[in-house]
Amino acid sequence: MGEMIKVGMADLKVCRAPDNLTTIGLGSCIGIAIYDPVTKISGLAHIMLPDSTAIRNNSNIAKFADTGIKKLVDDMIKMGASKSRLRAKIAGGAKMFDMGGASAINVGDRNAAASRDMLKKLGIPLVAEDCGKNFGRTVELYSENGDFLIKAVGKTPYKI
Fold first, then answer.
1. Which of 80, 86, 136, 155 is deepest in the core (most CB within 10 A)?
2. Which residue numbers are catalytic?
């Protein structure tokens, strides 16, 4: 068993088997897991917001779905992954606080939608997702087989 590499908020990392990736505390944030089943290279991004173009101070590319996913894919290809083999899984995008009424602009839903859109633009199939609901998640991506383990308080861990 390799190292479990931690990915922080608004951060992204790539590795290859036997190493694995994890990020904690996905509320409205999305964990984007991408892997190449042949080279066993995988990447995980913890994005916080859907769109870098809507924010003036947007120098942290890992923070946004549009720029973070593209950078993750680029880093994986540099490491030797083949774009045509990449597969993605996403988790998170929870609605953590119900504010009620029209003020509840659901960042979680928007993050999930932006992530799906960017993957589609890049031609990377989204093979599984666990988004929405009202609980936070910790995720672990296993490079060996692309398993994406979802852990949530009070729930049995499950793979997607």
1. 86
2. 29
pTM for this one?
Answer: 0.94
pLDDT per position as a tens digit, 97-106 = 666 554 456 8
- Report the first-to-last Cα separation within the chain, whole angstroms: 20
62 contacts 44 by C-beta, under 8 angstroms: no
C-alpha separations of 45 from 23, 75, 89, 104, 105 in Å:
8, 11, 11, 25, 23
Q: Is 43 exposed, middle or buried (0-12, 13-18, 19+ CB in 10 A)?
A: buried
* CA separation, residue 75 to residues 16, 129, 139 (Å): 12, 22, 20
**Measuring CA to CA, how many Å separate 67 from each of 5, 11, 120, 122, 124?**
21, 11, 14, 12, 15
Helix H or strand E encompassing 72: helix 65-79
